[in-house]
Amino acid sequence: MERRERPTAADERAMLQGWLDHHRDTLLAKCAGLTAEQLLRAATPPSGLTLLGLVRHLADVERYWFRMRFTGEDVGDLYFTEEDPDADFHGGSPATAAADFAALRAEIAAGDAAAAGRGLDETFTVPDGRILNLRWIYVHMIEEYARHNGHADLLREAIDGATGS
Fold first, then answer.
1. Per DSSP, what are the bridge partners of residue 132?
2. Strand pairing partners for 131?
3. How far apart (Å, rounded) are the C-alpha atoms in residues 74 and 76?
4. What is the dihedral of CA 10, 11, 13, 15, to 10 degrees?
5. Consecutive 10-residue runs of the chain (165 residues): their mean pLDDT?
6. Number of neighbouring beta carbons within 10 Å of residue 102
7. Within 13 A of 118's CA, how many CA atoms are on the CB side?
8. Phi, psi of 160 (to 5 degrees)
9. Fewest C-beta in 10 Å: which of 43, 103, 108, 111?
10. pTM of the predicted protein model
11. Residue 130 half-sphere exposure, CB side, CA atoms within 13 Å?
């Protein structure tokens, strides 16, 4: 899978979007070419973390920040439930893998649409009362993907030896 180039000289919005897109692409690249069973392999015991769990988690995170928090859409969580708050990380199966990737891609598109044409200084209030802005979401999403892409590197290497940036 081809990843979009990281921007090197751009305005703030293009820089934030470019880095987020690069990290989104990186996660998908780390998962490329694996079977559904491999995507579900918890490859670094004792952790139960899987590549598919990361895909599901990041779909929920995309939805939560861009749609549920920033635009206030009433769409509900994809995987999180009160009974199982970590269902994103461990609820997948070989039968759901394709739908889970489709959900991530759909949430990325929906998140981009939610942010399109909106100012980075536009604010919203989260349940704990903090006031955040769209810029905060971009920075948070970049660090969220970057952290989990590090996990994906280790998982992929343990699954089939593939390494790379």
1. 124
2. 125
3. 6
4. 30
5. 82 96 96 97 92 98 98 95 93 96 98 98 97 98 98 96 82
6. 11
7. 21
8. -140, 10
9. 43
10. 0.95
11. 7
DSSP class per residue in 97-154: HHHHHHHHHHHHHHHHHHHTT--TT-EEE-TTS-EEEHHHHHHHHHHHHHHHHHHHHH
Dmax over CA atoms of the chain, in Å, equals 46
Distance separating alpha carbons of residues 153 and 80, to the nearest angstrom: 25
Query: Token pair of 159, please?
Result: 């699954």
Task: Report the C-alpha gap between 15 and 124 in whole angstroms.
Answer: 22
Residue appearing with tokens 């100012």:
119
Among all chains, which residue has been given the structure tokens 């006031």? 131
Task: Please state, in angstroms and as integers, the Cα–Cα distance from residue 48 to each residue in 43, 126, 142, following that order.
Answer: 8, 30, 24
The two tokens of residue 35 are: 């079977």
The amino acid sitting at 86 is D
